[in-house]
Design goal:
By secondary structure, the chain is of the alpha/beta class. Helices cover 37% and strands 23% of the residues. A hairpin with a 2-residue loop joins strand 3 and strand 4. The chain starts with 17 loop residues before the first strand and ends with a strand. The chain binds S-adenosylmethionine and zinc ion.
Length: 332
């Protein structure tokens, strides 16, 4: 943890400032182990292996903890990076472009292995803070610690240890895994200053009936409950199908003269062609990610629109992404 992160941290219980009570170990300028103390209610929070810890997954509600445990495992196993992440990220947060990050104070809700925290830092954010509930913070910290303007915090998105100070907050692929997606969205929005901006990307209900009908029962009753190493191996079978289909059919047909007329009629074409550029490891991550989640909500456009109205956001743009998900951007 870098000293300057202290300027932004607030007690998640009483919102007061925090002080560095003790440091047990430094690695260069990074505080690796130590304690933070609330200046008002005197609660203590640990810094462990470079990450301030505001929520221990074992102390949060069982449904949230199961999600954190599975994703924590996932992001400690799938630690690869891919040069296609930047374009994929911009697709999720459109109309935001990389220049938008310049000089902004940025918050990421549910940073996983930190791939987007890293991009935000590279794109010139003044400071970017990636928050995650799970052990994924270990991977995210390792991936971002060399970046002067990147910080990782372990916390629950419902109890964020910050004031209402951020110029921009975003959350990609997280809210639909929460027990109350809209509550998570509201909590994230509550940390954006007036005039700042917010982006969110969630699974859509529309066009995903085949998942909710056939894949979800399997995910809920089986794949999210079995041993994760077993799922790692079992998920290679559906990944092989996706891999062959995208490499032999979807990719080539969609690249033919900028997309053949036939390709547009293929099942789930927009999404499958969007992942056709990825190699085996990334496609395996995507399939595993879908199967490991204990909770997944599929959100209707009208419900997503209502979330933005509820926080009184202005200039909201909501877009259909790959014809299977919703991305939103608005001003607070
Ligand atoms: C599908 S991953 C997406 C990670 C990242 N946004 C990305 O796109 O690479 C969902 C992430 O949300 C995190 N998460 C789930 N529940 C959370 C909560 N209550 N508070 C904070 N993070 C949470 C998980 O630990 C996981 O890392
Ligand atoms: Zn306090």
């Amino acid at each position: 943890m870098k000293h300057k992160l202290l300027d932004y941290l607030r007690c998640p219980l009483c919102a007061a400032t925090l002080s560095l009570a003790s440091v047990a170990r430094y690695e260069e300028a990074e505080i690796m182990d130590g304690e933070l103390a609330c200046d008002s209610c005197a609660r203590m929070f640990s810094i462990v292996r470079g990450v301030p810890r505001f929520a221990m997954p074992e102390k949060v509600a069982a449904d949230k903890a199961a999600t954190a445990e599975n994703f924590g495992w996932q992001w400690q196993h799938f630690v690869q990076s891919d040069e296609l992440y930047a374009d994929q990220f911009l697709g999720w947060i459109a109309p935001v472009r990389s220049e938008f990050f310049e000089n902004k104070l940025v918050l990421e809700g549910g940073c996983g292995k930190g791939r987007h925290t890293q991009l935000a830092a590279d794109w010139g954010a003044r400071e970017v803070i990636g928050v995650d509930l799970s052990d994924a913070v270990e991977t995210a910290f390792a991936a971002t610690r060399q970046l002067e303007n990147a910080h990782i915090v372990q916390a629950d998105i419902y109890h964020l240890p910050f004031g209402r100070v951020f110029d921009y907050a975003f959350s990609v692929g997280v809210l639909h895994h929460l027990p109350d997606p809209q509550g998570g969205f509201r909590s994230l929005a509550s940390k954006v200053r007036a005039g700042g901006h917010l982006s969110a990307w969630v699974y859509g209900a529309e066009n995903n009936e085949w998942i909710t009908r056939f894949v979800d029962p399997l995910r809920e009753k089986f794949s999210s409950r079995i041993d994760r190493r077993a799922l790692l191996h079992l998920s290679k079978f559906p990944t092989a199908l996706v891999y062959l289909a995208t490499k032999l059919v979807y990719g080539p047909l969609n690249r033919l003269n900028g997309g053949s007329r036939f390709a547009r009629h293929l099942f789930y074409n927009d999404y499958l062609s969007s992942i056709s550029h990825f190699g085996w490891q990334e496609q395996h991550t995507i399939v595993f990610d879908h199967l490991v989640a204990p909770t997944s909500h599929y959100i209707r456009r009208e419900d997503f629109e209502a979330w933005w109205r509820d926080i009184n956001a202005a200039d909201v743009t909501i877009g259909w992404h790959n014809k299977n998900s919703w991305r939103g951007f608005g001003k607070i």
